[in-house]
Specification:
With about 525 residues, the chain is of the alpha/beta class.
Length: about 525
């Protein structure tokens, strides 16, 4: 309680010292798709093909211990925008034990109206907001960005799956604000054979245009820049195709890096860089199952979909000239949910008091290099708490990585932990360790290869604290209604708002079920592997 009181006083002091002398800062969150901790030069990638991000880290703060709230996309994105764990905000499924799921085109639901998202709160402080890129929190009109606080939107409700999506009946729509302007693989070309597409350039230009427009106005702005070129099927534009020594994935990384550089340079040119807080991160770990088409998770175990470090520890950089000391390295444990709380505080507002907010402010660590050694991270798959990190210790209550030797030509998938089998740690079956969790010291053993013996004093001392934290967490957990249990193809995928204006409405194909039904009855809907 004393620690909380000290932090509250500190934040009040810091907030008053910033807000009383400066206008509310602009906020830019750059959320990448399936980019791994080890994909950036600043995080040790030997290719050194991210000069703009590396420069961003030198001018700002590199965060080594920053996490997603989920090892897959939709739950992570919902948590960033709501400041709450997926099990609280509803973007999860409980139809199976520890099953990952995301908002596919077979889900009728999306982010609940009851969740208060970041752009909705920032609007109270006069912010204008735009989402560029991937939304992934619902396809029906009621679930789209402009109905959840955003003023502008250019992108898609989902990833660029295709062509004809993986279900084979429609390509996903691309929106400008509240109406579709085309579909992926049609008006917005992605060539799977060559890996060529101009989508990243479009996303860059949209972000730049929004910043230029807002810079002429008195109100602060919030830009949520969420390109998805690093999610399979990968793509890059002509200028970057074939430029990386890492293949098409590296080309996509280089192009995204150039976009970051252009955005930061524009902020300097407009002389608003010192009043703009920018944060770069990723939604989950790199997709190790994609082999050479996936990214690099550095020294960490496994990747996307898995609750070992490779699935949830993210490459993260904070940038705010004249506020964040250049070149600092922060070992503060943090989470995507912290971006919600940090942004709300930067806007001079208070977080909602009618619900539990899991995010904390990053300002003490970024502005004063303070470290909270007791910060806790919970690792969930679906409704199951798989692991917990407290300080430098991480305890696995459940483990699962899927088949270790998978190389299925029918899906082109490799194992989620390909080439990383650790005896007694990586388990093909969902394994219960709740009576004797696997414990790792992440400082000494970031790759989670050497469990601490459960009869050691170190184990018993660490687990005494962790068990108390877990008991309290579970005692106070009130799960939200799981939104990913109900399936049925959203009609707004077939005939989105505005489709009639461009002759892109699609009639309901034979055999496609629009009626709500339990997802357990629809084998195509649930994505248990990733």
């Amino acid at each position: 309680m004393m620690a909380f009181s000290w932090l509250f006083v500190f934040l009040l002091f810091k907030l008053s010292s910033v807000d009383s002398s400066e206008p509310k800062p602009n906020i830019i969150i750059m959320l990448m798709d399936d980019v791994g901790w080890g994909d950036l030069g600043a995080f040790g990638n030997p290719a050194m093909e991210t000069p703009n991000l590396d420069k961003m880290a030198k001018e700002g703060a590199l965060l080594t211990d920053f996490y997603s709230a989920s090892p897959v996309c939709s739950p992570a994105r919902a948590s960033l925008l709501s400041g709450r764990l997926p099990i609280r905000n509803g973007i999860y499924s409980d139809l199976g034990h520890a099953v990952n799921d995301y908002v596919s085109i077979k889900h009728l639901s999306g982010i609940p109206d009851s969740e208060i998202l970041l752009p909705e709160i920032l609007k109270e402080a006069g912010y204008r907001s735009m989402l560029v890129g991937k939304w992934h929190l619902g396809h029906e009109e009621a679930h789209l960005p402009l109905n959840h606080g955003f003023d502008h939107f250019f992108g898609s409700p989902n990833c660029h799956f295709g062509p004809l999506d993986r279900f084979g009946f429609v390509n996903l729509p691309v929106y400008r604000d509240s109406e579709m302007v085309g579909r992926y693989f049609e008006e917005f070309v992605i060539d799977e054979n060559t890996g060529l597409s101009n989508m990243t350039q479009l996303f860059i230009e949209e972000g730049l245009s929004f910043i230029k427009e807002q810079a002429t106005k008195d109100d602060p702005f919030f830009l949520y820049w969420s390109p998805d070129a690093t999610h399979t099927p990968l793509y890059a534009s002509h200028a970057f195709r074939g430029e990386s020594q890492r293949g098409l994935y590296g080309d996509a990384i280089m192009e995204l890096d150039s976009g970051v550089g252009r955005i930061l340079e524009l902020l300097r040119e407009l002389q608003i860089d010192q009043n703009t807080f920018v944060f770069f991160t990723s939604d989950n770990g790199a997709a190790t199952y994609a082999g050479e088409e996936g990214g690099n998770n550095g020294p960490f175990l496994c990747g996307k979909g898995i609750t070992f470090e490779g699935g949830m520890r993210e490459p993260s950089i904070a940038w705010w000239p004249s506020h964040i000391q250049p070149g600092i390295v922060s070992h503060q444990v943090g989470s995507l949910m912290d971006l919600f709380t940090t942004s709300v505080i930067l806007a001079g507002l208070s977080v909602p008091e009618d619900r539990i907010i899991d995010g904390s402010s990053l300002l003490p660590s970024l502005l004063e290099q303070e470290v909270d050694p007791e910060r806790t991270v919970f690792y969930y798959r679906g409704s199951e708490m798989m692991a917990v990190r407290r300080g430098v210790y991480k305890a696995h209550y459940w483990t699962w990585v899927g088949p270790l030797e998978t190389d299925d030509p029918s899906t082109s998938r490799l194992s989620n932990c390909f080439g990383q089998e650790v005896p007694g740690v990586t388990s093909e079956e969902l394994t219960d360790h709740t009576h004797c969790p696997l414990l790792f010291h992440l400082g000494k053993d970031p790759g989670e290869k050497y469990p601490i013996p459960n009869d050691s004093h170190e184990y018993m001392d660490a687990m005494l604290t962790i068990r108390a934290v877990v008991t309290n967490h579970k005692r106070n957990m009130v799960p939200g209604e799981p939104q990913l249990n109900i399936c049925g193809v959203p009609e707004d995928i077939l005939s989105p708002p505005g489709c009639e204006k461009i002759n892109k409405c699609v009639p309901v194909p034979e055999g496609v079920d629009l009626e709500p039904h339990d997802c357990s009855e629809d084998p195509q809907a649930s994505i248990a592997v990733v």
